[in-house]
Amino acid sequence: MTRPLRAAVIGCGAVAANHAAAYHELPGVELVACADLDPARASALADRFGGRAVAADDLYDHAPDLVSVCTPHPAHEAAVLRAAAHGVHVLCEKPIANELDAARRMVRACDDAGVRLGVLFQRRFWPAARRIRTALDDGTLGRPLLADVAVLLHRDTDYYRADPWRSTRAGGGGGVLSTQAVHYLDLLQWYMGVPVEVSCTHATFAHGDATEAEDTSVATVRFAGGGLATLSASTALTPGLGCRIRVTGSTGATVGLSEYPEGSEAGLDVWAVPGAARAGTPYGQGLVADVGLARINGDLAPFHALQIAEFVTAVRDDRDPAVTGREATRSLALLTALHASAASGRPEPVPTVHEEIPA
Ligand SMILES: NC(=O)c1ccc[n+]([C@@H]2O[C@H](COP(=O)([O-])OP(=O)(O)OC[C@H]3O[C@@H](n4cnc5c(N)ncnc54)[C@H](O)[C@@H]3O)[C@@H](O)[C@H]2O)c1
Asked: What positions does the domain Gfo/Idh/MocA-like oxidoreductase N-terminal occupy (predicted)?
């Protein structure tokens, strides 16, 4: 019989409960340690889900086999490099990093150490998201030609004030593209392929007194395969209207999903495929009041659990997880180009990542 895998969590804030709960529930996994700069947060998580509350510097004294990195984005790199240096497999929250070079260093360090690096994009684990990927794989859509992404969310200004890393450009956490829309940038490139050029404009409509970063962005994206996409993203809506992505292929068929309210499992709202057409509306029950972060993260937890279970299986089977560090670097490259275009006021190329980080 194989021994239980020893799991740890570093960064015990809002999203960490989704990781700790998944490890707590998974057969063959033991949550051994929870670490945070703030000992009270580490204790609160360990009290709920097990393991010992430890100082971040002492984490590796507890011999984890794998660690979830749930720190703010700017602290992802140091935590991943440290895990790799200790020969520990690592599952990092999204986005992989704020800077492409940091992501490249993370991928290389894990390769060199022979450990698996996974990145959390749990929306890929929605059945609806997988149906769209299957419609591309089985030819229903043909070649992806056109996509439309809308991320139309609500945040209180206090959200930016509560955690200082969300309010500075250097923290990178406050920008709607990095923190909220990045899940849909990931789906966009999963469906449409390699993005090559973007045009983007940022604005700050609602939260300018609390964050330096954009709360609103609009963009167009051109893909290597010839496809095009439009994107609009904002946290300035009251109430928020959730998120959606639609993809039209060379067969003329269009499929799409909607997430409403934010955090709920998305459903297919458009399946415009000749002979199988159907449609739904995300607002079938009417509009609902904005929900808080705890509810949003709680609704996402089952899909964190699916991705975390898949990562654990990958570690056991000594294979790559479904979303690798290399794969997550692709959405960061797109994010980087969007910010570059917003800064320059011109179309910008998307940095290539595959050539630079050979598989
Ligand atoms: N996958 C998702 O849907 C999802 C949802 C929410 C957040 N996230 C991501 O998770 C990460 C954390 O977000 P959050 O909302 O939980 O943030 P948070 O601010 O609530 O929690 C971060 C925690 O990390 C701790 N921390 C900071 N630096 C540290 C360090 N060097 N060592 C140890 N602990 C450290 C802080 O004290 C805090 O407790 C972000 O990258 C965010 O984008 C992902």
From this structure: 5-120
